[in-house]
Design goal:
This protein has 198 residues and is α+β, with helices and mostly antiparallel strands. Helix content is 21%, strand content 30%. The strands form two sheets. An eight-stranded mixed beta sheet has the order 4-1-2-3-11-10-9-5. The protein is globular and about 60 Å long. The termini are far apart.
Length: 198
């Protein structure tokens, strides 16, 4: 995991959140995602801005938060209410944001694939888990092996999105099966082996 990839996400959201867990480990990110940054010394906002290469002009527009030991169990490598999630090959683009659907024990949720960028350089890859809080909240945990490296929040979808999906599925089911459809070239009076210029 690189500081550069975390910094890019924080800059795009104009927010830097730092969390210190019970073991003294530092987590950096913003309200929607926190990432473990090993061996990061305790630092103030100006030092964080320097680490993230935030210019003085942009610094004034950034929001800085600091939290200590909130939901401590959520940041442990081992979590009782945790389940491995199967990754989906499907992606949705909603208002320019790429989202990945994940089937959890409480239904389908979506995550912003941008938040997965800091994990992509792990030598052994990474896996996603659901973590249910005692209050009924759901977070997505990113782990490499047995080690936790990130906590992500789910993307909140509007009712309009689901209404559109239901409409698409309804009309898609009404279409003939693929094997019953003729090719585009045949439908246009052409050939399937090349372009007919006559």
């Amino acid at each position: 995991m690189t500081i550069k990839s975390i910094a890019k996400i924080c800059k795009s959201h104009k927010e830097v959140t730092r969390h210190t867990d019970e073991g003294g480990n530092q987590w950096l990110g913003f309200n929607g995602a926190l990432y473990l940054v090993p061996n990061l010394p305790d630092c103030d906002n100006e030092q964080l801005a320097a680490i993230f290469d935030i210019s003085p002009e942009k610094y004034e527009k950034m929001k800085f938060n600091f939290y200590e030991c909130q939901n401590a169990l959520l940041f442990n490598d081992v979590y009782a209410a945790e389940n491995l999630l199967e990754r989906s090959k499907v992606r949705y683009i909603v208002e320019g944001i790429e989202l990945e659907p994940l089937k959890t024990s409480v239904g389908v949720v979506f995550i912003n694939t941008e938040y997965l960028a800091p994990f992509k350089k792990f030598k052994n890859g990474f896996e996603l888990y659901e973590r249910l809080t005692p209050g009924g909240g759901l977070h997505i945990a990113a782990k490499s092996g047995l080690e936790l490296h990130g906590i992500l929040k789910c993307y909140k979808m509007s009712k309009e999105f689901f209404d559109i999906q239901e409409d698409i599925i309804k009309h898609a089911k009404a279409l003939p099966n693929n094997e019953e459809q003729i090719s585009f070239a045949e439908a246009m009076g052409g050939t399937t082996n090349g372009i007919d210029n006559n």
